[in-house]
Write a sequence for this structure.
């Protein structure tokens, strides 16, 4: 039963399993009902439109994170990942891909509050966070390198 639940599709191309996957197998990373609903909204309102515009699969490196997983990856204490409202998309070694995806977020007018291009060494990720109901944060687009 649990396996069936994890295979649940949250949008046409994104599953619950994909959006809760972690490299920290010793940590429970099961979302609550509310967090799962946030993941569904993230998949339907941000990830799926972005994938459709891109025209090919996107690899989500991290989406939902439990408190323990977030601590292990040194995530922000108020991270949108903790509520199932953010995803990090792996863009490999392609600065063109990460920048095109970031610009797609803008061009598609996706309901995002954070679009962050991250680079570590030669590897790029795009962090996107869905603007939640009642969120008063102004949308931010930024780049970080480390």
């Amino acid at each position: 039963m649990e396996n069936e639940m994890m295979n649940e599709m949250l949008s046409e191309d994104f599953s619950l399993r994909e959006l809760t996957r972690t490299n920290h197998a010793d940590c429970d990373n099961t979302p609550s009902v509310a967090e799962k609903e946030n993941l569904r909204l993230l998949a339907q309102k941000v990830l799926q439109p972005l994938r459709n515009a891109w025209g090919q699969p996107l690899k989500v490196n991290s989406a939902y994170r439990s408190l323990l997983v977030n601590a292990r990856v040194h995530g922000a204490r108020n991270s949108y990942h903790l509520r199932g409202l953010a995803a990090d998309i792996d863009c490999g070694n392609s600065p063109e891909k990460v920048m095109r995806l970031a610009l797609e977020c803008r061009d598609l007018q996706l309901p995002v509050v954070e679009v962050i291009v991250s680079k570590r060494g030669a590897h790029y990720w795009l962090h996107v966070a869905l603007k939640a109901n009642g969120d008063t944060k102004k949308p931010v687009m930024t780049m970080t390198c480390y």
In short: The helical segments are 2-6, 16-20, 33-54, 67-72, 95-107. The first strand starts at residue 59 and ends at 62.
